[in-house]
Write a structure and sequence with these properties.
Elements lengths: L7 E6 L3 H12 L4 E7 L6 H7 L3 E5 L1 E2 L2 E2 H11 L4 E6 L4 H9 L4 E4 L4 H13 L10 H18 L3 H11 L4 H8 L3 H15 L4 H13 L1
Parallel strand pairs: 1-2, 1-3, 3-6, 6-7
Antiparallel strand pairs: 4-5
Length: 216
């Protein structure tokens, strides 16, 4: 768990002037908060945001000529420690999942009170988990699990994914070797690599994971 800094620097990305100004004025009144800057989009403000070095960036999901979630990916690459909060006028599971995959720390409805936004900022600064309080716990848990699974699978090579699929189809090590035209030793090496990448400690766990992936 992180420690909340004495000063939290917030940058706001919102293309509606009234909303952007209202957010800036409201958050500036909060103790320990400082508005590091504000802009109407991300793509033309990357250097400004980098120079401002904010702790938190609040981004509207729908910006003029720009998708806030997609643009946040670029921002996250430039500032890996930046906490991004996505605000959306329409709130659903798919958007929340997309926000999480883009590197966002929270996904909130634009209809919430400023006090709830302040609470969200404190949450993302202190906790290292995705925050979307308007989603039911079971839905949120499913989004987080699927996101982690997708990230882990991305680490696997094409060959390793093929072997994982064959494990799910109950192929033995010898059968996998025959199917792919490789040696049994090579198959065992691939299995070890798969387990290491997925954080699995034994072969039973590997089989269970392969079955799970075959069902989703």
């Amino acid at each position: 768990m992180a420690i909340l800094p004495e000063l939290v620097k917030v940058f706001i990305v919102e293309d509606e002037d009234l909303v952007r100004d209202t957010l800036s004025q409201s958050l500036q009144l909060i103790d320990n908060f400082q508005i590091a800057g504000a802009s109407a989009n991300i793509s033309s403000s990357l250097s400004i945001i980098q120079s401002a070095m904010p702790d938190v960036c609040i981004v509207d999901v729908r910006l003029q000529n720009e998708n806030g979630i997609e643009a946040s990916k670029t921002l996250k690459k430039l500032l890996p420690n930046l906490k991004i909060i996505i605000l959306s006028g329409y709130f659903n599971e798919t958007l929340a999942a997309t926000a999480l995959a883009s590197g966002a720390s929270a996904f909130l409805s634009k209809s919430i009170a400023v006090s709830h936004l302040v609470a969200a900022i404190f949450h993302v600064m202190v906790h290292n988990n995705f925050y979307a309080p308007q989603l039911p716990d079971d839905v949120l848990e499913g989004i987080i699990i699927n996101s982690k699974t997708s990230k882990r699978l991305c680490a696997l090579s094409k060959r390793e994914k093929e072997i994982l699929e064959l494990i799910a189809r109950e192929y033995s090590t010898r059968q996998i070797a025959d199917k792919l035209g490789i040696s049994e030793k090579t198959v065992r090496n691939h299995k070890s690599n798969i387990m290491a990448k997925l954080g699995i400690t034994n072969h039973v766990g590997l089989i269970k994971y392969a079955y799970y992936m075959a069902m989703i």
